[in-house]
C-alpha cells in the first residue's frame, strides 16, 4: 500500500492553492517532451467505465494557431456585447487567454463514439464522457503546476470553428483549448478575484446536508 506522509499532504494542499489559470506566459520554450509528459499524466485520470475518451491535439502549426487566436478574438468580442455598463467595462479589462504568448497549445476533445469501457456508466448519464475529460485536464493542470509550468484553459472559442481549424473527427466533442508555458508570475489567488470580477467563496456556501 503506498502511503503519503504529512509533509507530502501539506505540499499537495499547497499545490491546489497555487494552481492557477495562467494567461500571461514568459517566452521561454517548454522542455522537449513536456507536453507528452502532461498527456501521459492526464491518461492516468479517472474515466467513466475506464473509457479514456480524451483526445489531445498538440497544435504546432502557426497558421492553425493564428486561426484559433482569430476565433478567440471574435468570440471574446461577442461575449463583451452580452454585458453592459460597469460589468462590460470590467470584462473588457480582463485578459482571458494567453494564446499569443504561450509556447504550448493543446486542444482537448472527448470522443463520444469510442467503445472503450463498453458504455459502462454512461446509459443514464452520457455526459460522463465529457466529465472524464475535464477530470483529465485538472490532473494535467496540477501536474503542470508541480513542474512550475502554467496552464490556461480557454473556452471563449467556437467549437465548430476549432473542429474546422484542427480537422478532427466530427465525433470528437471540443472540451477546451489549453495554453501551456511558464507563467510570468505565480499567484495564490485567481486572477478573476484579483481583478474583482468574482471572488472565491467558502465550501460552506456549496454544501448541503440531507
Ligand atoms: C471549463 C473551464 C473553462 C474556462 C476556465 C476554467 C474552466 C474549468 N477558465 C479558467 C477560470 O477562469 C479559472 O479557473 C477561475 O477563474 C479560477 O481561477 P484559478 O484557476 O484558480 O486560477 C478560463 N479562463 C480564461 O481566462 N478564459 C477562459 O475561456 C476560461 N475558460
From TrEMBL:
One of its GO terms (biological process) is cobalamin biosynthetic process. Keywords: Cobalamin biosynthesis, Flavoprotein, FMN, NAD, NADP, Nucleotide-binding, Oxidoreductase. GO terms for molecular function: 5,6-dimethylbenzimidazole synthase activity; nucleotide binding; oxidoreductase activity, acting on paired donors, with incorporation or reduction of molecular oxygen. The keyword Oxidoreductase applies. SUPFAM superfamilies: FMN-dependent nitroreductase-like (SSF55469). CDD domains: BluB. Its EC number is 1.13.11.79. Residues 18-182 form the Nitroreductase domain. It catalyses: FMNH2 + O2 = dialurate + 5,6-dimethylbenzimidazole + D-erythrose 4-phosphate + H(+). It comes from the Bacteria. InterPro entries: BluB, Nitroreductase, Nitroreductase-like, Nitroreductase/BluB. Pfam families: Nitroreductase (PF00881). Homooctamer. Belongs to the BluB family. NCBIfam families: BluB. This is 5,6-dimethylbenzimidazole synthase. It comes from Bradyrhizobium valentinum.
Amino acid at each position: 500500500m503506498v502511503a503519503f506522509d504529512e509533509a507530502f499532504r501539506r505540499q499537495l494542499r499547497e499545490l491546489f492553492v497555487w494552481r492557477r489559470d495562467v494567461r500571461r506566459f514568459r517566452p521561454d520554450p517548454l522542455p522537449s517532451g513536456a507536453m507528452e509528459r502532461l498527456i501521459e499524466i492526464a491518461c492516468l485520470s479517472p474515466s467513466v467505465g475506464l473509457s479514456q475518451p480524451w483526445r489531445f491535439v498538440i497544435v504546432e502549426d502557426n497558421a492553425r494557431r493564428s486561426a484559433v487566436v482569430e476565433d478567440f478574438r471574435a468570440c471574446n468580442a461577442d461575449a463583451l456585447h452580452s454585458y453592459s455598463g460597469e460589468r462590460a467595462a470590467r470584462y473588457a479589462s480582463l485578459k482571458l487567454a494567453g494564446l499569443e504568448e504561450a509556447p504550448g497549445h493543446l486542444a482537448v476533445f472527448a470522443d463520444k463514439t469510442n467503445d472503450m469501457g463498453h458504455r459502462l456508466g454512461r446509459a443514464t448519464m452520457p455526459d460522463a464522457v465529457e466529465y472524464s475529460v475535464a477530470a483529465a485536464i485538472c490532473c494535467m493542470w496540477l501536474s503542470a503546476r508541480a513542474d512550475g509550468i502554467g496552464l490556461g484553459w480557454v473556452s471563449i472559442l467556437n467549437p465548430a470553428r476549432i473542429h474546422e481549424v484542427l480537422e478532427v473527427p466530427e465525433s470528437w466533442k471540443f472540451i477546451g483549448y489549453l495554453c501551456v508555458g511558464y507563467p510570468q508570475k505565480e499567484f495564490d489567488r485567481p486572477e478573476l478575484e484579483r481583478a474583482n470580477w468574482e471572488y472565491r467563496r467558502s465550501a460552506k456556501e456549496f454544501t448541503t446536508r440531507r
